[in-house]
Design a protein that fits this description.
By secondary structure, the protein is of the alpha/beta class. Helices cover 44% and strands 17% of the residues. The longest helix has 15 residues, at 91-105.
């Protein structure tokens, strides 16, 4: 017997992503792009809200801004990495990422 992949296999491969970014303009671009690719995204702008959010949704990946105004992102990284895959993004990397994503979002709400 041959097992066939479901017709919509890509939906099964999408990730649940927790984005931690305090700048709404930057976050909206990243959220738009990830959702357009089919990922489930939860955005948190406060470092204080992140542990509870991560526990609630059990993300496949956390994208963590390294410069959060209301908490120490490196201490948060230490806490999160014990249970979740985390990618920490420095402001210079974030600016480059957003510059790459902006053309993809042009003309979209």
């Amino acid at each position: 017997m041959i097992a066939l992949a479901p017709a919509n296999i890509s939906a099964q491969l999408m990730a649940c992503v927790l984005l931690v970014e305090d700048e709404p303009n930057i976050a909206s671009i990243i959220v738009f792009k990830l959702k357009r690719e089919g990922h489930e995204v939860r955005w948190e702008s406060s470092a204080l809200a992140v542990p509870a959010a991560a526990e609630a949704i059990q993300p496949d990946l956390i994208l963590l801004d390294s410069s959060l105004p209301d908490g120490d992102a490196f201490a948060l990284l230490t806490t999160l990495v014990a249970k979740h895959p985390v990618v920490m993004i420095k402001p210079t990397q974030l600016a480059r990422l957003v510059a790459e994503l902006v053309p993809a979002t042009a003309g979209h709400p």
